[in-house]
Amino acid sequence: MKINKICMAIFIVLLSVTSSLSTELPPPPSNYDWVNCTEIKGAFLKPIGWYYKQVKQDDILGYFITKENIDEKGEYLTGLFVNVIPQIPQKKGMSSSNYAKAFIETAISEKEIFKKPWTNSMGPFQAYGVALLNRDSQKGDFITHNLAIANDQTGTIYLLIFESPAESWESSWKVAEPMLQRFLIDDTI
Length: 189
Hints:
By secondary structure, the protein is α+β, with helices and mostly antiparallel strands. The chain has helices at about 5-15, 70-75, 90, 95-110, 170-180; strands at about 30-35, 40-45, 50-55, 60-65, 80-85, 110-120, 125-135, 140-150, 155-165. It has a single domain (about 5-20, about 30-180), classed as Mog1/PsbP, alpha/beta/alpha sandwich (Protein Transport Mog1p, Chain A, 3-Layer(aba) Sandwich). A seven-stranded antiparallel β-sheet has the order 3-4-5-9-8-7-6, with helices on both faces. The chain has a two-stranded antiparallel ribbon with strand order 1-2.
């Protein structure tokens, strides 16, 4: 599926959530379970057998859905990191959509483009994305699929970054694609 179609699928799911996450989530795809993130009234798909970890620093929330157990290894090679940052205008002096755009532009300036950048919007959400090839002579090259979703009405930004070693990207992307197509975030957070 092409990246632009992925963005459209994301926004269809994003807007299906109202001001509070329903206790009944849609059935997950085969081989996935939902992870309910009550703090943001959202939910993300987790492949069965993968690990989930939540962290909080001040008012910033982080969610990890990874193939490797972060608590055991202290890191992961393949997985999705979701960072939820509220109050962007107060913290950064710009709208959340401008911050999201700048985040992607900075990432592009520092890495090699793997798949060209895209944008999409629906309702209060504006998304910017790009897939990048990250060269690392010590640990090996890896690819990141970066998606920055801004809600200017609430001043919140959602950074979703899926990464995998470049050598296993094709098989990892097959797992990641549903995770990045079907997630739920609340438009009032």
